[in-house]
Amino acid sequence: MIDYSRLPTSSAKNISVRVKGAAERALRQGHPWVFEDAILRQSHLGNAGDLAVIYDREKNNFLAVGLYDPLSPIRIKVLQALQPMRIDRDFFAEKLKAAQAKREALINEGTTGYRLVYGESDGFPALIIDRYGDTLVMKLYTSAWLPHLQALIGALEEAIVFDNLVLRLSRALQSDRLNVAKLYGLEDGQQLIGAGADKPVTFVENGLLFQADVRKGHKTGFFYDQRDNRQMVREMAKGRRVLDVFSYTGGFSVYALAGGARTITALDISEPALETLKVNVEKNGYEAKLVDVIAGDAFSGLMQLIQARRQFNLVIVDPPAFANSRASMRNAVMAYRRLVEMALRLLAKDGLLMMASCSSRIKADMFFELVERSAKVSGYKLDIVEKTGHALDHPVGFPEAAYLKALFARLRK
Ligand code: SAH
User: Fold this and answer.
1) Residue 131 near residue 113 (C-beta atoms within 8 A)
2) Which of 46, 139, 183, 342 has the smallest set of CB atoms within 10 Å of its CB?
3) How far apart are CA 344 and CA 220, in angstroms?
4) Which residues, at least 6 apart from 366, have a Cβ–Cβ distance to it below 8 Å?
5) Which atom, in ligand 1's list, is nearest to the CA of 222?
6) Do 351 and 314 touch, CB atoms closer than 8 A?
């Protein structure tokens, strides 16, 4: 449960802000971020979560209102642009209803696990809400939401049907510097509404059953962004020996089995994730003996499979984000190259490769070119089957919201 009286409140006095011309233009075009160095003047300093109102320099017209975030280079995170609106529970409730309406198609096909709110693209900067059946998991990426938590949760209760609400906090929010937990009595994995989320939650995706640990699992517990790619794998898997690299809890493995895969080899560094993978396989009625799990580092695991002269007919590679900062770009590119080369060495003739990237700094075109070039340099010829991007519940409202891309290709040997 949550003691709202312990949370910070936002100041009744809004911060009034003027920004550079380029930032004004970006706001007019709907871009949701104002960087620290775009700010020319502000009325006063303010605290995290105070509302910052940006006026244009020429006519003093309202441009946007957003969350002030003094600890982030993205200093103002826009909630509403061009048309002034009161930021309160009703405002959030309308945005939540709109987000829910966008996902109707998924709900209609019987999927009960999906992303309900994808940050800025749904009007909630630096905030994610994922649905796991009756359980919602809200992940905060900034302390600027804390003064608005009561309005936000009230809006959720008004606009959305659910039983349980679990809070997840980003690494930054859990860090010593911010110390949110200690200051306000909040902790990562805390259940804010309902009971029972300490046990795994179960949900349905494209007719398949999964369980997730929403309190301790990666991100919010499952990776909904790959749903459409998993469905493609299901359609390609018949009769194939499948290698699922960075399998996590087996999203791709279960879909491959549902599509008639002959065997699965799943590789991940997380043992608890592999335990859940086995549970997910059995939940859907497939025999555990079809699945071989290898716990360990993917790079050395792949090398061992190569040395053992193993061959597969479908190799899925879905690594974590390697490039989150500019400095890590070079290493990320090297890592992708090595993964492509090793995956191709393990592919039999006419085998299929699915190579994904969720590094937002590596743009789609660059990634596709990188995969194709890595294959060529290693002496392999690929026929591109499909290039994919974002699913319906991860709408790309502005360029920086695009991070996921995947290449499906067939190996010509
Ligand atoms: N394919 C998964 C999601 C993968 S997320 C799905 O569809 O659900 C990335 C995974 O990579 C995580 O499970 C993480 O445990 C794993 N991982 C991170 N570093 C790794 C490494 N060096 N070797 C193997 N697995 C790693």
Assistant:
1) yes
2) 183
3) 32
4) none
5) 8
6) yes
Cα atoms found within 13 Å of the Cα of residue 355, Cβ hemisphere only: 29
- CB of 224 shorter than 6 A to ligand 1: no
Nearest CA to 224 out of 386, 339, 112, 362 is that of 112
Q: What is the pLDDT of residues 76-91, one digit of tens each?
A: 999 999 999 999 999 9
Does residue 320 line the site of ligand 1, with CB under 6 A?
yes
Strands 164-169 vs 135-140: parallel, antiparallel or unpaired: parallel
Is the distance from the beta carbon of residue 252 to the nearest atom of ligand 1 less than 6 Å? yes
Q: Is 223 in the pocket of ligand 1 (CB under 6 A)?
A: yes
353 CA to centre of own chain? 22
Q: Which of 255, 135, 235, 243 is nearest to 195 (CA)?
A: 135
Select from 230, 267, 269 the residue to mutate for testing ligand 1; criterion: most ligand atoms less than 8 Å from CB.
269
The number of beta carbons lying within 10 Å of the beta carbon of residue 206 is 16
Kindly state the tokens that stand for 282.
Answer: 């059995």
Residue 356 tokens read as 């994904």
Burial of 112 (0-12, 13-18, 19+ CB in 10 A): middle
Q: What is the pLDDT of residues 122-163, one digit of tens each?
A: 999 999 999 999 999 999 999 999 999 999 999 999 999 999
Rg (CA), the chain: 23
| Tokens, residue 192 | 């804010």
Residue 158, CA distances (Å) to 39, 90, 128, 161, 376 in order: 36, 9, 18, 8, 55
Angle between helices 227-236 and 251-258 (to 10 degrees): 40
Please indicate whether residue 208, judged by its CB atom, sits closer than 6 Å to ligand 1.
Answer: no
- Burial of residue 1 (number of CB atoms within 10 Å: 0-12, 13-18, 19+): exposed
Instruction: Report the separation in Å between the CA atom of 324 and the middle of ligand 1, taken as the mean of its atom positions.
Output: 16
Q: Virtual CA dihedral for 191, 194, 198, 204, nearest 10 degrees?
A: -110
Length of the chain: 413
**Mean pLDDT, rounded, for 392-409:** 97
